[in-house]
Fold these 2 entries.
Entry 1:
Amino acid sequence: MSGQSTVFHLAGRTIAEMDQELLAFLKAKVNTFIKWDLVRFFHENPHTSDTAENIARYAGREATAIAAELADLAESGILVSHPLGNLPIYSLTGDARTLDLIARFVAACDDRQFRVAAIHYIIRSNKR
Amino acid sequence: MNRVRTGIQGYDDMLGGGYLPQTANLVEGAPGTGKTTLGMQFIYNGVAQFDEPGLILTFEEFPQQYYSDAASFGWNFRALEQSGKLRVVLTSPEVSLSDLRQVGGRIETMAREVGARRVLVDSLSHFERLAPDPLALRESVYTFINALKREGLTLVLTRESTALLGDAGTGEGEEDIAFVVDSYTLMRYVEIESAVRKAMLVLKVRGSEHARDIRQFEVTGRGLEVQARFEGREGIMSGSPRRMAEAFDQAFVHK
């Protein structure tokens, strides 16, 4: 094997064979499992609008675990945030191109090969 | 008088033709009686039969659950969302209340985008954790309801009662909320001859005549179907009705 892009050879597919736009999306924006969960959650419940604490409750997580992840997703343009007093309220972006990428990403995750490759990518990148 | 029809046969008759426009209509019942189904049917029929788009504000169930529950009645909520006739919004009482107070808030914008005329709020019970004291609760709910009415919406608000059978008993705050709404429908389980049935009663419709009798209803594969009134029994809303003759006997003969 040579180079980073051919390191993962999972279920017959190298990471180089993954949709490059989705791979870039994964690397830049959905680079943790919590973000992955949150992206899927907002895709499935697209008109959610709430605080980190309430979203944590919906997602079955600790608010402290997801507050920073939600802020990152807002920073990267997947979510938008607006203030409620001192608290940010998060909702899904209305940007059509980003929504399309999210829909493709979630659909791709139904494919086992893509999913396994993406999981390995996140595990490896978080170990570094 | 102009009416906002629910499209639920029998229920519209009970209401005197339907809800009055831009009113708040409370539907209260025990878990599983069909409050949310009634609300979803109100929203679905609004789009499908009366060309009136709608919003669902949910404080508990995920939108996915509504898509799935609606599909079991043959109502395709996903398709309605895609065609811009419906929005299912997962949020919390505190966020929605604050949002509605703002000019150009998210809910206001969404209502205008879809041209919403109807809204289901499921459920009002979640407001109770916002304000522990009855006066503050009433104030919050009053502001929330008025903000939605301001947008030209006709509201169905669900509220859970705790008792499965009969009178749940209402707290001070709950009674206060009943004063804030324009119509009040009760749904109850009723035990008759070892079988559990469902009963509904329209307690009030502000500014309109309405049926005073208690009707039996079922949730079928087509949604809620209101049937005939309970005949020859009394004490229906207590959960354990008696035949009129037994009641007469108990009231007069044995005393």
Note: Chain B has nine helices and eleven strands.
Entry 2:
Amino acid sequence: MRNRDGNYAFSLSICSLILTNSLVLDASEYLISYRYTVQDAILYSEKLQVAHAMKKCEGKAQKPLILESYADNDLQKTLLANSNEFIDYIHTLGLHVRHRSLTTDFQNKSTTVLTLKTTCFKVDFNDNSAIIAPIK
Amino acid sequence: MKYSMLLAALLSASTIMAANEMAQPEVITTTQPSMMQVSDSKKEYLLTEKKDVRISVTGQGVAPMNTVSPAQAYALAKRAAVADAYRLIAEKIKGVRVDGQDLVKNMMVQRSTVRTSVDAMVRNANIIETTFKDGLCEIEMEIMLSHSQFAH
């Protein structure tokens, strides 16, 4: 018959592995990137990407932004609920501008892409608010 | 005695004028990019330690036709206008790369192509005023440039 105590060491090692990973992967750090494209003076596409940081970010937290948060520690939902404030805040951090225009026989077409390169943010969730600060 | 007093008064007046000039940042205003480049060629703006340069631009954006509400139209047009304003600032600070190509056949222009491109990083630009009328959003944006930002 199989000894039940034999699984104890295995369970312990799994638990310690999970605990170690949860300590190493800082849950309050996120990677955020944002990009939007304007074609011929009309907004063409917009993309905001949010992901947990898989390793600890180096640097110090900079100028923070405080957002109302009703979602249960869900950064994506919090950012979508306060998208205008957050996008205005992103603009203050600095965006990369890439513009291309083509004029053929006096007819002009243009494309402008504004990009926030993938940046690490420290996020602290409180009762009804989330404090977001870029780490640089 | 009379001449020395007059000289002293002139000197103090010129010192006050110079101090006022140093305190106010230089202003560059842009609304139409093509016209701006012509007017700018006449005057060269220099960034010095004692003089900041303020660049002011007006970006324009249009709402798409398929919006579901005026609020959405405003939000989308504003986003486009901000991108346009950023582009104008980038053009002013970093410059524009221009490539032109004309195809001439039998002494006639068959095709004329002009490509322009801008790549830059813009930080600390501020929106001064936003207007939205008849589907067109205009954003006045400015950025302050100081010597210390570039002196590394």
Note: The CA atoms of residues 98 and 113 of chain A lie 5 Å apart.
